Amino acid sequence: MRTKSLLVALSALCSSAAAFGQNATVTTNSSLSVGLLQLGGAGLNGQILVSANDWWGVIRAAQDLAIDFGKATGTNLTLGNWQGAVMPGAGNYSKRTEHVRRDPDPQWGWWGPPQPPHGGDGGGGPNGGSWNPRQTSPPSSEHNDTEGSPASSETTVYYTYQPTTSFVNYTVGPTQNFTGPTLVNNSTLKTVIIAGTIGKSDVVDALLVAQKFSELPIRGKWESYISKVVDNPFPGIDRALVIAGSDMRGTIYGLYDVSEQIGVSPWWWFADVPVKKSEGVWALEGRKTQRSPSVKYRGFFINDEQPALTNWINDNYAPGPYGPGFNHYFHAHVFELLLRLKANYFWPAEWSSMFNVDDTANQPLADAYGVVMGSSHTEPMMRASNEWPTFGPQYGGNGQWAFNSNQDAIEAFFRYGAERAKPYAASSLFTMAMRGSGDTAISLTDEQAIVVVENAVNAQLSILADVFNGTNVTEIPQMWCLYKEVQGYYEHMGLTVPDHITLLWADDNWGNIRRLPLANETSRSGGAGVYYHIDYVGDPRDYKWINTIQLEHTVEQMQLAYARKADRIWILNVGDIKPLEIPISHFLDMAYDTPKWGYDSVPDWLKQWATLSFDAEHSDAIVSIIERYGMYSARRKYELMDPSFYSVINYNEADAVLAQWRQLANDSQTVYDDLDDEHQAAYYEMILQPVLGGQAVYQIYINAAKNQQYVEQKRSSANDKAMEVLHYFKEDAKLTQRYHDLLDGKWNHILDQTHLGYNGYWQQPMRNTAPPIAFVQDLETSLAGNLGVGVEGSNATVSGDDMYHGNSGNTLILPPMDPYGPKTRWIDIFSRGTDGCQWNVTPWVNYVKVSPSTGYTGGANGTDTRVYVSVDWTKAPAAPNTTTVNINVTSSCGANWGNYPAPTVQVPVHNVAIPSDFVGFVESDKHLSIEAEHTTRNTAVSGISYSTLPSYGRTLSGVTLMPVLSPSQPAGTGPVLEYDIFTFTSVPKANVTLLISPSQNQNGALRPLKYGVAFDTETPQVIQFVGNYTGGGYPPGWLGAVGDAVWGMDRSGNTTTTTHDLTAKGKHTLKVWAVEPGVVIQKIIVDLGGLRYSYLGPPESFRAGVDKVGMYDGTNFAGTALSDVI
User: Other CB atoms closer than 10 Å to residue 664's CB: what's the count?
Assistant: First the structure.
């Protein structure tokens, strides 16, 4: 450990052994070990006792746990095979066992490639969702086999399968198998853990027969387990930690729960998180009963995997028969990751892969691990998109992916998918229906398309009934994704979906769920789920470079989904997996135990994640870094950035944004420097590279914006800004190369995704490209002399001519100053020539102050200078008073500036006052800016009220109605947000704009998102700010809303702006009602005629009762000190 920084030292906390959101069952703290059962550590050669007749996937996970003990303590556990007698009712199982056999290439784990057949014997409880935890799928074929006998020293466990031999007509070849683990028979090692599946494992069933523990709380449940220290479980064993699962994955989760508690991150391989070292591991007393997960099927979708993941695959695995080698060696890592994350469902890569064709061992391995296979929303009946153009012509017909004209061929194509999946039925969830070719809408009228997809589903159901003969087709897991235009077919055009098929609702590809179950849909036997994105290719632009996910937004959307009973499936589009480790973990933890991770849970979740991934000492600092990063990066996806968004002249916005990124980068680097060497690779991958990469992107575009402004002003420093753009452009590439060089190039290519240079087209640029930059001629002097003057709020320059002020005019006007506005305004003095000049800035009155008042700019000895203007209100004319004060700018280079007169700057000074007892927001510069959470009053009606979502949105937080299942709340009578304001300007048409999260009408057409707004006793104006359109496209303004991350700006159609009569000056009360749950208000802006452009809105206005005159800064939205701004 390096010497700790003060920041880290102050945040050091004791580590917790508990896995995420769960009760601890073990500890690595030796001070707590007195009287506890030791499971592992130096001097203890223990074993995990299993039964060879248990699921292969369970024994494999037990092997992982045995090795994890070695990683944590230095001593592996051994896997022992229970050799006890068969108990009544436990089944007639062969006896088997193992010891660890490693594959020669440890990169691939301990199993080898598929082998010829061997020569041996041939819902939930408190955490559950709305679904029935006792529902079962059709069973898979028998795949478990063993080699060995009770008399032998070892028993090897096999998973056997028959690979397909044709990709057109279903045929299979000779039996192959996955080999291992090998169990030790009759081991004399101390048994410390006994693990197995109830009703499958002889050893666990023997304990139940002997009444050593009760399985009643989890009997027949989905993915549940019990963990308990049992005294005298068998003769010769004093005590053992028993882990008993209700089914295969229940047992696996129980085993991996221990792994996580002893310090093995699910990301130990995919993100290189080191295992925590400990002297020992002890089992805690008590019993843990883990009920069924909140969401039944939880997983992710590898998608948009070119170029990054595909290039990485090409570097690390042999090619497949038709493309990149997405083989079972790769998928073994994916399946282990999913299970360690307590997930169970997987959609494989689509763009350049065919899961079952790339490697015929892929689907058998998924079944062996216990991972449920599906296929994406556009890949029906377990067949990859690329299988149709590759093999479709061999089915005859016209070769078209068109069910209406090529039905026989497509039905045969579907049948093969069902036949291929049948041996793995327990690990299969069928995607139903079909879209058009290439993930597009069917090229027919909507009415015709509905007939086609309904006919296709009927045919698919007939095929499933035939292939799974003897199984009720409604018991076969199926889902239908209502993606894009399909949602419109269902909602508005009468598309019929059989009741047993899960309705998979989709977000808008940008994390805003389009629709959720209505009351009349929640009783469907198939239930509902959500297809959610943290990566996307499509309009308005791709976003698939690095993590840009704000976890608080995910919580808000998925808690809404869970409350509305969309809890059968949660599937996450994760792009290349890396570098989205943090939002993947967060999403899947939410899916596993949704009630645990409520609206204010992100800091707690991040602290646990940081402690597991790094250490408790740095966890508080890491929480702060990730929360800030999530807000900053989600304001606008990197791919949507260009120089135009953040203002370089108004409200110090661009400079404040850069200051935030600078502080974030410094804090991130401090933690990195303080971490042990072994943690630095993981930290760079998941935290430091995203932060430094994000900072580089913002520096590129904001410096490009300054370059454009400076070129217009003919500043010599325009050239410096151009070079800064190029510097950070190169820095971006260096950060990528640094990532690719980590760990001897383990992740080379994983950041190949381009992200700079999008230009009016949604698709990725073929090469990273810097924004346009320009240069001024630095070998000559401006026609208006060696110096120039610019002011806040304007692109104009004096002396001289430009398009921003009157020809030959020599005066610029600063934005006004008053006691309730920004503490300072600024004037820039800059070089426009080859010579340097001494200058002086002199106000005409003593109460206007400037700093600095003199300087030297230009030539070899000076730089551009920002002069700050302030007012001493104790010396200003008493309120009420308005005065325009002149400020002269003179230069040693001569009285004339070229052929133009010397410049003058004017500052309007308004000395105004509010009543001493007023509490609320005060107008300045003819506008008010209000963070929504800062209400004067916040009322509740019938238990319905507003809650603040902390660290949510673009600047501070969001405010929304709770509970989310509340009925509509009429504006005027429902709960209201009230803001007292004080105005000095009489305006008959004041505009009020709400910046609202870019949510969709998820409660259906009858309850679209609306809010109400009024001043004082006005009748509320009720605004539906999201249009009704839910077909293949999106509501009007949606492209702008998701790009801006809010409704309410020009690009989304100003749908949240209303006009009000504020002719009367003085105190007013602004009232806002959220008519529907799901409306999340971030900021409110009142324009009295002085609002200037900014992306995030002006700094929050002075709050009487909170802020003090003379202490309030108000110069930028972040309230941060700015330096090196020009």
Answer: 22
The span from the CA of 137 to the CA of 477, in Å, is: 7
Handedness of CA 365, 371, 373, 376 (dihedral sign): negative
Distance, CA of 14 to CA of 671 (rounded, Å) = 18
Check which CATH number belongs to the domain holding 235 and give it. Answer: 3.30.379.10
Q: What is the rounded (10 degree) CA torsion for 104, 107, 108, 113?
A: -50
For 169, the token pair is 């007509």
Give the domain-ending residue among 776, 801, 819: 776
- Please answer whether residues 672 and 705 qualify as being in contact, where contact means their C-beta atoms are separated by less than 8 angstroms: no
3-state secondary structure 760-780: CCCCCCCCCCCCCCCCCCCCC
Q: Are 271 and 278 in contact (CB under 8 A)?
A: no
Which residue is listed with tokens 């608080």? 552
pTM of the model: 0.95
Residue 369 tokens, joined = 């691990």
CA quadruple 103, 107, 109, 112: dihedral positive or negative? Answer: negative
Clarify whether residues 281 and 312 are in a common domain. Answer: no
Buried b (16+ CB within 10 A) or exposed e, 877-896: eeeeeeeebebebbbebeee
Which of 715, 743, 776 marks a domain boundary?
776
Mean pLDDT by 10 residues, the chain (1126 residues): 36 45 89 94 93 97 98 97 61 30 29 40 51 78 80 92 98 95 93 97 97 94 97 96 98 98 98 97 96 98 97 97 97 98 97 96 98 97 97 96 97 98 97 93 94 97 96 96 92 94 97 95 96 97 98 98 98 98 98 97 98 97 98 98 98 98 98 98 98 98 98 96 98 98 98 96 96 96 95 96 88 98 98 95 98 92 89 97 97 88 96 98 98 98 97 98 97 97 98 98 95 98 90 86 96 93 98 98 98 98 97 96 83
Indicate if 619 and 550 belong to the same structural domain: no
Q: The tokens 């992916």 sit on which residue?
A: 401
Q: What letter represents residue 1084's amino acid?
A: I
- Cα–Cα distance, 14 to 313 (Å, whole number): 40
The separation between the first and the last C-alpha atoms of the chain, rounded to the nearest angstrom, is: 39
From the list 267, 303, 959, the residue with the least C-alpha distance to 614 is 267
Total structural domains within the chain: 5
Spatial separation of the C-alpha atoms in residues 309 and 323, rounded to whole Å: 13
